[in-house]
Design goal:
With about 425 residues, the protein is of the alpha+beta class. Helix content is about 45%, strand content about 15%.
Protein backbone atom coordinates (compact mmCIF):
# COMPACT_ATOMS: atom_id res chain seq x y z
CA UNK A 1 0.00 0.00 0.00
CA UNK A 2 2.76 2.35 0.89
CA UNK A 3 4.47 1.40 -2.33
CA UNK A 4 1.34 2.30 -4.26
CA UNK A 5 1.02 5.69 -2.53
CA UNK A 6 4.60 6.54 -3.34
CA UNK A 7 4.10 5.46 -6.92
CA UNK A 8 0.98 7.66 -7.25
CA UNK A 9 2.59 10.61 -5.55
CA UNK A 10 5.76 10.93 -7.60
CA UNK A 11 4.11 11.13 -11.04
CA UNK A 12 1.72 13.79 -9.74
CA UNK A 13 4.69 15.96 -8.64
CA UNK A 14 6.34 15.37 -12.01
CA UNK A 15 3.23 16.32 -13.93
CA UNK A 16 2.81 19.54 -11.91
CA UNK A 17 6.42 20.56 -12.52
CA UNK A 18 6.07 20.02 -16.29
CA UNK A 19 2.95 22.18 -16.36
CA UNK A 20 4.80 24.98 -14.55
CA UNK A 21 7.71 24.71 -16.98
CA UNK A 22 5.38 24.93 -19.96
CA UNK A 23 3.64 27.97 -18.48
CA UNK A 24 7.00 29.64 -17.73
CA UNK A 25 8.29 29.05 -21.26
CA UNK A 26 5.01 30.22 -22.77
CA UNK A 27 5.01 33.39 -20.64
CA UNK A 28 8.61 34.12 -21.56
CA UNK A 29 7.82 33.75 -25.25
CA UNK A 30 4.83 36.07 -24.88
CA UNK A 31 7.01 38.71 -23.17
CA UNK A 32 9.72 38.38 -25.83
CA UNK A 33 7.14 38.61 -28.61
CA UNK A 34 5.64 41.72 -27.01
CA UNK A 35 9.07 43.34 -26.69
CA UNK A 36 9.86 42.46 -30.31
CA UNK A 37 6.60 44.03 -31.46
CA UNK A 38 7.37 47.20 -29.49
CA UNK A 39 10.88 47.40 -30.98
CA UNK A 40 9.59 46.82 -34.50
CA UNK A 41 6.91 49.47 -34.05
CA UNK A 42 9.46 52.00 -32.79
CA UNK A 43 11.84 51.19 -35.63
CA UNK A 44 8.97 51.36 -38.09
CA UNK A 45 7.93 54.77 -36.80
CA UNK A 46 11.47 56.11 -37.22
CA UNK A 47 11.87 54.57 -40.68
CA UNK A 48 8.47 55.85 -41.81
CA UNK A 49 9.25 59.29 -40.40
CA UNK A 50 12.61 59.43 -42.19
CA UNK A 51 11.04 58.20 -45.43
CA UNK A 52 8.23 60.75 -45.17
CA UNK A 53 10.72 63.55 -44.47
CA UNK A 54 12.79 62.61 -47.49
CA UNK A 55 9.86 62.31 -49.89
CA UNK A 56 8.14 65.48 -48.64
CA UNK A 57 11.20 67.73 -48.62
CA UNK A 58 13.24 66.43 -51.54
CA UNK A 59 13.50 68.52 -54.69
CA UNK A 60 13.36 66.67 -57.98
CA UNK A 61 14.89 67.66 -61.30
CA UNK A 62 14.63 66.39 -64.83
CA UNK A 63 17.89 64.49 -65.28
CA UNK A 64 17.00 62.91 -68.60
CA UNK A 65 16.91 59.49 -66.90
CA UNK A 66 14.26 56.92 -67.79
CA UNK A 67 13.03 55.98 -64.31
CA UNK A 68 11.90 52.50 -65.32
CA UNK A 69 15.39 51.72 -66.60
CA UNK A 70 17.16 52.64 -63.35
CA UNK A 71 19.00 49.67 -61.93
CA UNK A 72 17.33 47.70 -59.15
CA UNK A 73 19.83 44.93 -59.66
CA UNK A 74 22.92 44.76 -61.82
CA UNK A 75 25.57 47.48 -61.61
CA UNK A 76 24.42 50.88 -60.33
CA UNK A 77 25.80 54.27 -61.47
CA UNK A 78 24.92 57.50 -59.68
CA UNK A 79 26.11 60.92 -60.84
CA UNK A 80 26.83 63.23 -57.89
CA UNK A 81 27.31 66.96 -58.50
CA UNK A 82 28.13 69.95 -56.34
CA UNK A 83 26.31 73.05 -57.53
CA UNK A 84 27.30 76.66 -56.82
CA UNK A 85 23.64 77.69 -56.84
CA UNK A 86 22.64 80.26 -54.17
CA UNK A 87 18.92 79.67 -54.62
CA UNK A 88 16.12 81.06 -56.74
CA UNK A 89 16.99 84.42 -58.28
CA UNK A 90 20.48 84.47 -56.72
CA UNK A 91 22.50 82.90 -59.56
CA UNK A 92 23.41 86.21 -61.18
CA UNK A 93 26.65 87.78 -62.38
CA UNK A 94 26.37 90.36 -59.59
CA UNK A 95 26.44 87.62 -56.93
CA UNK A 96 28.69 85.07 -58.59
CA UNK A 97 30.72 86.71 -61.35
CA UNK A 98 28.64 85.10 -64.10
CA UNK A 99 25.03 84.15 -64.70
CA UNK A 100 23.71 80.64 -64.30
CA UNK A 101 24.59 77.55 -62.34
CA UNK A 102 27.94 75.76 -62.46
CA UNK A 103 29.36 72.60 -60.95
CA UNK A 104 32.77 72.49 -59.28
CA UNK A 105 32.31 68.86 -58.28
CA UNK A 106 31.34 65.95 -60.50
CA UNK A 107 31.66 62.33 -59.41
CA UNK A 108 30.37 59.08 -60.84
CA UNK A 109 29.59 56.58 -58.08
CA UNK A 110 29.71 52.99 -59.31
CA UNK A 111 28.28 50.08 -57.30
CA UNK A 112 28.99 46.65 -58.83
CA UNK A 113 26.30 44.01 -59.22
CA UNK A 114 27.60 42.02 -56.24
CA UNK A 115 27.22 45.14 -54.02
CA UNK A 116 30.51 44.36 -52.27
CA UNK A 117 32.13 47.78 -52.66
CA UNK A 118 31.64 51.33 -53.95
CA UNK A 119 33.87 53.15 -56.44
CA UNK A 120 33.82 56.97 -56.55
CA UNK A 121 35.36 58.51 -59.68
CA UNK A 122 36.11 62.24 -59.76
CA UNK A 123 35.92 64.13 -63.05
CA UNK A 124 38.21 67.15 -63.40
CA UNK A 125 35.94 70.07 -64.26
CA UNK A 126 38.20 71.46 -67.02
CA UNK A 127 38.36 68.13 -68.88
CA UNK A 128 37.99 68.71 -72.62
CA UNK A 129 35.22 66.41 -73.84
CA UNK A 130 32.64 66.00 -76.58
CA UNK A 131 29.32 67.39 -75.39
CA UNK A 132 26.40 65.96 -77.40
CA UNK A 133 25.15 68.54 -79.90
CA UNK A 134 27.63 71.19 -78.73
CA UNK A 135 31.04 69.95 -79.88
CA UNK A 136 34.17 69.92 -77.76
CA UNK A 137 33.89 71.90 -74.55
CA UNK A 138 34.89 71.74 -70.89
CA UNK A 139 32.85 69.06 -69.17
CA UNK A 140 31.48 71.53 -66.60
CA UNK A 141 29.97 73.69 -69.35
CA UNK A 142 27.31 71.04 -70.07
CA UNK A 143 25.19 72.23 -67.15
CA UNK A 144 24.85 75.77 -68.50
CA UNK A 145 24.36 74.60 -72.09
CA UNK A 146 21.61 72.07 -71.54
CA UNK A 147 20.87 71.52 -67.87
CA UNK A 148 21.04 68.19 -66.09
CA UNK A 149 19.87 66.07 -69.06
CA UNK A 150 22.87 67.26 -71.07
CA UNK A 151 25.24 66.61 -68.14
CA UNK A 152 23.84 63.09 -67.84
CA UNK A 153 24.20 62.49 -71.59
CA UNK A 154 27.77 63.83 -71.55
CA UNK A 155 28.81 61.57 -68.68
CA UNK A 156 27.12 58.55 -70.27
CA UNK A 157 29.05 59.17 -73.49
CA UNK A 158 32.31 59.57 -71.57
CA UNK A 159 31.99 56.34 -69.60
CA UNK A 160 29.90 54.22 -71.96
CA UNK A 161 27.40 53.25 -69.25
CA UNK A 162 23.93 54.42 -68.25
CA UNK A 163 23.53 56.88 -65.38
CA UNK A 164 20.81 55.43 -63.14
CA UNK A 165 20.39 58.35 -60.74
CA UNK A 166 21.46 61.96 -60.18
CA UNK A 167 22.02 63.81 -56.90
CA UNK A 168 22.94 67.51 -56.71
CA UNK A 169 23.82 69.45 -53.58
CA UNK A 170 24.18 73.22 -53.40
CA UNK A 171 26.10 75.59 -51.10
CA UNK A 172 23.47 75.72 -48.36
CA UNK A 173 23.00 71.97 -48.40
CA UNK A 174 26.70 71.39 -48.02
CA UNK A 175 26.82 73.66 -44.98
CA UNK A 176 23.75 71.96 -43.52
CA UNK A 177 25.20 68.47 -43.94
CA UNK A 178 28.48 69.26 -42.19
CA UNK A 179 26.65 71.00 -39.34
CA UNK A 180 24.26 68.05 -38.91
CA UNK A 181 27.23 65.70 -38.66
CA UNK A 182 28.89 67.91 -36.08
CA UNK A 183 31.71 68.55 -38.52
CA UNK A 184 33.85 66.19 -40.59
CA UNK A 185 37.39 65.30 -39.54
CA UNK A 186 39.81 65.36 -42.48
CA UNK A 187 43.51 64.51 -42.66
CA UNK A 188 44.91 67.59 -44.41
CA UNK A 189 48.41 67.14 -45.90
CA UNK A 190 48.97 70.73 -47.08
CA UNK A 191 48.84 74.02 -45.18
CA UNK A 192 46.75 76.61 -47.01
CA UNK A 193 44.26 79.44 -46.60
CA UNK A 194 41.07 80.18 -48.50
CA UNK A 195 38.84 83.23 -48.79
CA UNK A 196 39.40 86.86 -49.76
CA UNK A 197 37.70 88.27 -46.67
CA UNK A 198 38.20 86.75 -43.21
CA UNK A 199 40.09 83.82 -44.74
CA UNK A 200 39.89 80.33 -43.31
CA UNK A 201 43.23 78.79 -42.36
CA UNK A 202 43.76 75.03 -42.77
CA UNK A 203 46.82 73.70 -40.91
CA UNK A 204 48.52 70.43 -41.64
CA UNK A 205 47.17 67.43 -39.76
CA UNK A 206 43.73 66.34 -38.57
CA UNK A 207 41.24 69.20 -38.89
CA UNK A 208 37.53 69.48 -38.16
CA UNK A 209 35.57 71.01 -41.04
CA UNK A 210 32.05 72.40 -40.84
CA UNK A 211 29.92 75.08 -42.43
CA UNK A 212 31.73 77.72 -44.48
CA UNK A 213 35.15 76.32 -43.64
CA UNK A 214 34.16 72.94 -45.09
CA UNK A 215 32.84 74.59 -48.23
CA UNK A 216 36.03 76.59 -48.69
CA UNK A 217 38.14 73.48 -48.16
CA UNK A 218 36.53 71.55 -51.00
CA UNK A 219 36.33 74.54 -53.37
CA UNK A 220 39.80 76.06 -53.05
CA UNK A 221 42.19 75.66 -55.97
CA UNK A 222 44.21 78.87 -56.32
CA UNK A 223 46.31 78.12 -53.24
CA UNK A 224 47.92 75.14 -54.99
CA UNK A 225 50.33 74.69 -57.85
CA UNK A 226 48.20 71.71 -58.83
CA UNK A 227 45.10 73.93 -59.04
CA UNK A 228 41.98 71.92 -59.81
CA UNK A 229 43.82 68.60 -59.41
CA UNK A 230 44.43 69.35 -55.76
CA UNK A 231 40.88 70.62 -55.33
CA UNK A 232 39.67 67.23 -56.58
CA UNK A 233 42.04 65.47 -54.17
CA UNK A 234 40.67 67.53 -51.27
CA UNK A 235 37.13 66.70 -52.33
CA UNK A 236 38.02 63.01 -52.30
CA UNK A 237 39.57 63.35 -48.84
CA UNK A 238 36.42 65.03 -47.58
CA UNK A 239 34.09 62.41 -49.10
CA UNK A 240 36.18 59.55 -47.69
CA UNK A 241 36.23 61.14 -44.24
CA UNK A 242 32.49 61.78 -44.33
CA UNK A 243 31.80 58.16 -45.33
CA UNK A 244 34.05 57.00 -42.46
CA UNK A 245 32.00 59.11 -40.09
CA UNK A 246 28.55 58.12 -41.34
CA UNK A 247 29.22 54.38 -41.68
CA UNK A 248 29.73 53.90 -37.95
CA UNK A 249 27.59 52.27 -35.31
CA UNK A 250 27.33 55.59 -33.46
CA UNK A 251 25.55 57.17 -36.44
CA UNK A 252 23.66 54.26 -38.01
CA UNK A 253 22.39 52.99 -34.65
CA UNK A 254 21.16 56.43 -33.60
CA UNK A 255 17.82 57.09 -35.34
CA UNK A 256 17.70 60.67 -34.08
CA UNK A 257 21.09 61.42 -35.60
CA UNK A 258 20.01 59.86 -38.88
CA UNK A 259 16.87 62.01 -38.73
CA UNK A 260 18.95 65.14 -38.05
CA UNK A 261 21.11 64.45 -41.10
CA UNK A 262 18.06 63.79 -43.30
CA UNK A 263 16.27 66.93 -42.08
CA UNK A 264 19.37 69.05 -42.68
CA UNK A 265 20.32 67.81 -46.10
CA UNK A 266 17.08 66.97 -47.91
CA UNK A 267 15.79 70.54 -48.43
CA UNK A 268 19.02 71.40 -50.27
CA UNK A 269 19.52 68.28 -52.34
CA UNK A 270 18.00 67.74 -55.77
CA UNK A 271 17.55 64.24 -57.16
CA UNK A 272 16.00 62.61 -60.19
CA UNK A 273 12.34 61.65 -59.81
CA UNK A 274 13.17 57.95 -59.47
CA UNK A 275 15.33 58.42 -56.38
CA UNK A 276 12.69 58.32 -53.65
CA UNK A 277 12.80 56.94 -50.10
CA UNK A 278 11.67 53.45 -51.13
CA UNK A 279 14.39 53.22 -53.78
CA UNK A 280 17.06 54.42 -51.37
CA UNK A 281 15.85 51.96 -48.73
CA UNK A 282 16.16 49.14 -51.28
CA UNK A 283 19.72 50.14 -52.12
CA UNK A 284 20.44 50.44 -48.40
CA UNK A 285 19.42 46.84 -47.81
CA UNK A 286 21.61 45.72 -50.70
CA UNK A 287 24.57 47.65 -49.29
CA UNK A 288 24.09 46.83 -45.60
CA UNK A 289 27.48 45.12 -45.43
CA UNK A 290 29.43 48.08 -46.84
CA UNK A 291 31.90 49.80 -44.55
CA UNK A 292 34.22 52.75 -45.13
CA UNK A 293 37.09 50.47 -46.12
CA UNK A 294 35.00 49.21 -49.04
CA UNK A 295 34.83 52.67 -50.68
CA UNK A 296 37.48 53.45 -53.33
CA UNK A 297 38.06 56.98 -54.67
CA UNK A 298 40.19 58.08 -57.61
CA UNK A 299 40.35 60.67 -60.39
CA UNK A 300 39.56 59.40 -63.87
CA UNK A 301 42.48 59.22 -66.33
CA UNK A 302 43.35 62.39 -68.20
CA UNK A 303 46.18 64.02 -70.10
CA UNK A 304 48.17 67.17 -69.30
CA UNK A 305 46.81 70.71 -68.90
CA UNK A 306 46.67 72.70 -72.12
CA UNK A 307 45.42 75.96 -73.60
CA UNK A 308 42.01 75.84 -75.24
CA UNK A 309 40.10 78.28 -77.44
CA UNK A 310 40.45 81.88 -76.30
CA UNK A 311 43.36 80.98 -74.03
CA UNK A 312 41.17 79.10 -71.54
CA UNK A 313 42.85 76.47 -69.37
CA UNK A 314 41.71 72.96 -70.27
CA UNK A 315 42.74 69.40 -69.43
CA UNK A 316 43.17 67.01 -72.32
CA UNK A 317 41.83 63.46 -72.29
CA UNK A 318 43.90 60.30 -72.19
CA UNK A 319 41.89 58.32 -74.74
CA UNK A 320 43.77 55.05 -74.29
CA UNK A 321 43.40 55.06 -70.50
CA UNK A 322 39.75 56.12 -70.72
CA UNK A 323 39.07 53.23 -73.10
CA UNK A 324 40.35 50.82 -70.45
CA UNK A 325 38.15 52.43 -67.79
CA UNK A 326 35.08 52.31 -70.04
CA UNK A 327 35.63 48.63 -70.74
CA UNK A 328 36.01 47.85 -67.03
CA UNK A 329 32.78 49.70 -66.22
CA UNK A 330 30.82 48.08 -69.03
CA UNK A 331 32.00 44.61 -68.00
CA UNK A 332 31.51 45.34 -64.28
CA UNK A 333 35.08 44.43 -63.36
CA UNK A 334 36.30 47.55 -61.63
CA UNK A 335 38.04 45.44 -58.97
CA UNK A 336 40.41 44.12 -61.62
CA UNK A 337 40.90 47.60 -63.06
CA UNK A 338 41.79 49.10 -59.67
CA UNK A 339 44.04 46.17 -58.77
CA UNK A 340 45.90 46.61 -62.05
CA UNK A 341 46.23 50.35 -61.42
CA UNK A 342 47.63 49.71 -57.92
CA UNK A 343 50.12 47.27 -59.41
CA UNK A 344 51.26 49.84 -61.96
CA UNK A 345 51.73 52.44 -59.22
CA UNK A 346 53.83 50.06 -57.12
CA UNK A 347 56.12 49.41 -60.09
CA UNK A 348 57.18 53.05 -60.02
CA UNK A 349 57.25 53.10 -63.85
CA UNK A 350 59.67 55.70 -65.20
CA UNK A 351 58.50 58.63 -63.10
CA UNK A 352 57.74 60.66 -66.22
CA UNK A 353 54.03 61.07 -65.62
CA UNK A 354 52.89 64.65 -65.63
CA UNK A 355 52.18 65.91 -62.11
CA UNK A 356 48.80 67.13 -63.27
CA UNK A 357 47.57 63.57 -63.71
CA UNK A 358 48.10 62.68 -60.06
CA UNK A 359 46.33 64.87 -57.50
CA UNK A 360 48.25 63.28 -54.64
CA UNK A 361 51.55 64.13 -56.33
CA UNK A 362 50.42 67.70 -56.90
CA UNK A 363 49.60 67.91 -53.20
CA UNK A 364 53.19 67.27 -52.19
CA UNK A 365 54.47 69.69 -54.84
CA UNK A 366 52.07 72.36 -53.68
CA UNK A 367 53.00 71.83 -50.04
CA UNK A 368 56.63 72.75 -50.65
CA UNK A 369 55.83 75.71 -52.87
CA UNK A 370 52.72 77.26 -51.37
CA UNK A 371 53.30 76.88 -47.62
CA UNK A 372 50.63 79.02 -46.04
CA UNK A 373 49.57 80.46 -49.37
CA UNK A 374 46.67 82.85 -49.32
CA UNK A 375 43.93 82.43 -51.90
CA UNK A 376 44.69 85.71 -53.65
CA UNK A 377 44.34 84.48 -57.21
CA UNK A 378 46.88 83.89 -59.94
CA UNK A 379 48.87 86.75 -61.45
CA UNK A 380 47.99 88.03 -64.86
CA UNK A 381 44.71 87.66 -66.71
CA UNK A 382 41.89 85.34 -65.69
CA UNK A 383 39.65 83.13 -67.73
CA UNK A 384 35.90 83.53 -67.24
CA UNK A 385 35.91 80.35 -65.13
CA UNK A 386 38.65 81.73 -62.88
CA UNK A 387 36.83 85.01 -62.46
CA UNK A 388 33.65 83.16 -61.58
CA UNK A 389 35.58 81.06 -59.06
CA UNK A 390 36.94 84.15 -57.35
CA UNK A 391 33.50 85.73 -57.16
CA UNK A 392 32.05 82.49 -55.78
CA UNK A 393 34.76 82.25 -53.14
CA UNK A 394 34.19 85.85 -52.09
CA UNK A 395 30.49 85.11 -51.79
CA UNK A 396 31.21 82.45 -49.15
CA UNK A 397 32.91 84.99 -46.87
CA UNK A 398 30.72 85.94 -43.95
CA UNK A 399 30.79 89.41 -42.42
CA UNK A 400 31.99 88.14 -39.04
CA UNK A 401 34.69 85.80 -40.30
CA UNK A 402 34.79 82.04 -40.36
CA UNK A 403 38.42 81.19 -39.62
CA UNK A 404 39.51 79.22 -36.58
CA UNK A 405 39.69 82.32 -34.43
CA UNK A 406 35.99 82.91 -35.04
CA UNK A 407 34.59 79.39 -35.03
CA UNK A 408 37.31 76.95 -34.06
CA UNK A 409 36.12 74.72 -36.89
CA UNK A 410 39.50 74.23 -38.51
CA UNK A 411 41.83 73.78 -35.59
CA UNK A 412 44.75 71.36 -35.45
CA UNK A 413 43.90 68.18 -33.54
CA UNK A 414 46.89 65.95 -34.31
CA UNK A 415 50.44 66.25 -35.67
CA UNK A 416 51.03 66.06 -39.41
CA UNK A 417 52.56 62.58 -39.00
CA UNK A 418 49.01 61.26 -38.56
CA UNK A 419 48.46 62.08 -42.22
CA UNK A 420 51.20 59.79 -43.49
CA UNK A 421 49.88 58.20 -46.65
CA UNK A 422 46.73 60.33 -46.72
Amino acid sequence: MAHTENHDYLPRRSRGRNRRRRHTVRNALIVLAALLVVVLVLVGVYVASIASTFNDKRQTVDAGIATEQAASDGALNVLVMGSDSRGTGQDTAENKGEDGERSDTMMLVHVPEDRQNIVVMSIVRDLWVEIPGEGERKVNSALGLGGYPLVTATVEDMFGVNVDHLAVIDFEGFNGLTEALGGVEVCNPTVFSSGQVNPSYFPQGEILLRGTDALRYVRERKAFLGGDFERVANQQRFVSAMVDQILTVDTLANPQRVMDVVNAIVPFISVDEGLDAATIAGYGLQLNGIRSGDVETFTIPHGPPAEGPGGASIVLQDEEAMAELRQALQQDRMDEYLASDDSDDSDGSDGSEDAGTDPEASASDAASASGSAQATGSPGGQTSDQAGDQASEQATDGPSGSGPAATGSASTQAPASVCAGA
